[in-house]
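Q: I'm building a small set of examples for a reading group on sequence design. Run inverse folding on the following structure and report the sequence directly after it, with nothing in between.
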């Protein structure tokens, strides 16, 4: 009898946690976390409907503003869909890398 009660409690717990997880997923629209899809960025930010994003159009997006020049592979001042796909999949490099000149180890 005690084992049956424990099993019932365990099954009810699983049901409650599953329902809570599903509710949380629906509450945020079922969207995955992470960077937005490149096509969605263009759709949202492309004010002149050119199919590309200029520096002015990305000004409200801090991440794109910061990485604009690196993402703009052909250096035309516009981000197209392919550049965004490639640029948003690459992780930004850490700027603070020790240079060889600063290495004062005893190599002599």
């Amino acid at each position: 009898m005690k084992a049956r009660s424990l099993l019932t409690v365990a099954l009810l717990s699983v049901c409650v946690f599953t329902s809570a997880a599903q509710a949380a997923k629906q509450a945020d629209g079922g969207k995955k976390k992470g960077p937005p899809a490149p096509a969605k960025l263009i759709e949202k930010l492309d004010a002149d409907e050119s199919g590309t994003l200029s520096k002015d159009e990305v000004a409200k997006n801090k991440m794109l503003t910061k990485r604009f020049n690196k993402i703009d592979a052909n250096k035309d001042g516009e981000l197209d869909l392919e550049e965004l796909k490639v640029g948003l999949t690459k992780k930004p490099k850490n700027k603070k890398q020790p240079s060889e000149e600063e290495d004062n180890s005893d190599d002599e």
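The CA atoms of residues 52 and 60 lie 15 Å apart.
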